[in-house]
Amino acid sequence: MNVEELKIQISELFPAASYEEGGEWLNINIEPNDWLAFAKQLRHDESLFFDYLFCLTCIDWSQTPAGKTHLTMVYHLSSTKYRHNLVVKSKLDRNNPEIETVSHIWRTADFHEREVYEMFGVNFLNHPDLRLLILPDGWEGKNPMRKDFEDPVNMIKL
Amino acid sequence: MSENFSNNSESVKVLPTGEDLGGASFPGKIEEIPGGGIVLSKLDDIINWARSNSLWPLTFATSCCGIEMMAVASAKYDFSRFGFEVARATPRQADVIIIAGTIVNKMGPVLKRLYDQMADPKYVIAMGACAISGGPFFYNTYSVVKGADHIIPVDVYVAGCPPRPEALLHALITLQQKIKSGLTREQMPPSPKGV
Fold first, then answer.
1. B68-127 pLDDT per residue, tens
2. DSSP letters along A15-58, please?
3. How far apart are CA A64 and CA B128, in angstroms?
4. Which residue of A has its CA nearest to B145?
5. Which CATH number fits domain B55-181: 3.40.50.12280, 1.10.8.190, 3.40.50.1450, 3.40.50.720?
6. How many independent structural domains does chain A possess?
7. ipTM beyond cut 0.85
8. Å from B90 to nearest chain A CA?
9. Confidence of residue B7 (pLDDT cuts 50, 70, 90)
10. Is the Cα torsion angle B50, B53, B59, B60 positive or negative in sign?
11. How crowded is residue B168: how many other Cβ atoms within 10 Å of its Cβ?
12. Within 13 Å and on the Cβ side, how many CA atoms surround A84?
């Protein structure tokens, strides 16, 4: 399916989603509370069949010129059967970032979510094993990819 | 060339210097005698000459400099020509470690351990901006060691991001010249107290 066909199909399945124009792939914004149900549909719907989560990351918008203060979860999905791609974004509250895990839908999300957990401090609800992935012990709660992260011992500020 | 050998006799012939042979000269002089000649040299010089021409690097690469290092190892640049014969996958068989890439705080103890496992005499080349100073990761990072010489001593630094293969070859030849020129760190007498 191309972008327009995909948009029509997903609008039928999930009327609550809003879309971002521009970009190579279809961009969908959803509420964090809707994500789990939406993800299941994307994965299991026969005509969508998004069986491959090829990127899962987070963006900290604080200290940007636009003056935003939230976090954005970004999920890049692809279908190995139909070869169509999709980007799902979800705004999170920076002070209490929480979203449902999708590690039981796409197995790869397990490690990706652990990395986002340690780097940005996003709490993935119902994650089977949410602990530090790369950072050594003692880094719990420090979240080095947050824009306001400070480390006076290791970091030389420019 | 060493000045320690007497040069009174006209029969003493100086061996070709490094400049003639691209640094591959044998240290010493030939005392010509009927029917041939005797090579006069110092054992230290010969050992250093032998060492410098058979330096086995450790396969150690932590980022993109490693790709350049592999290019230098492969047929086009081929550092085997200068005696960097085979890259060894174990530090116990390696003579030189080329720090090809960024050293992060988590890698620091690993690098130290690899260096400790290498047999003496051992040499270190810091390849590229990351290994020299942290390079592009000097500012605003929590994870990068600002120069591998915070962890192990470095013999030769080669600048670049990453350095050209020619630059690494030059660094390797510079290391050879350093070894040939005199005492290694291990051979130096301990410095007197208070110095």
1. 999 999 999 999 998 888 888 999 999 999 999 999 999 999 999 999 999 988 999 999
2. TT-EEE-SSSSEEEEE-GGGHHHHHHHHHH-TTT---EEEEEEE
3. 32
4. A154
5. 3.40.50.12280
6. 1
7. no
8. 25
9. very low
10. positive
11. 28
12. 19
pLDDT digits (tens, 9 = 90+) for B28-83: 888 889 988 888 888 888 888 888 889 999 999 999 999 999 999 999 999 999 88
Residue A142 lies in a domain: no
Q: Look-up: residue for tokens 């320690």?
A: B4
- For A150, the closest chain B residue by CA position comes to B142
Task: Establish if A59 belongs to a structural domain.
Answer: yes
The beta-carbon neighbor of B141 closest among A134, A136, A155 is A155
The answer to whether B65 and B34 have CB atoms below 8 angstroms apart is no
Residue A14 lies in a domain: yes
Chain B nearest CA to A121, separation (Å): 16
Distance CA(A124)–CA(A132), nearest Å, equals 13
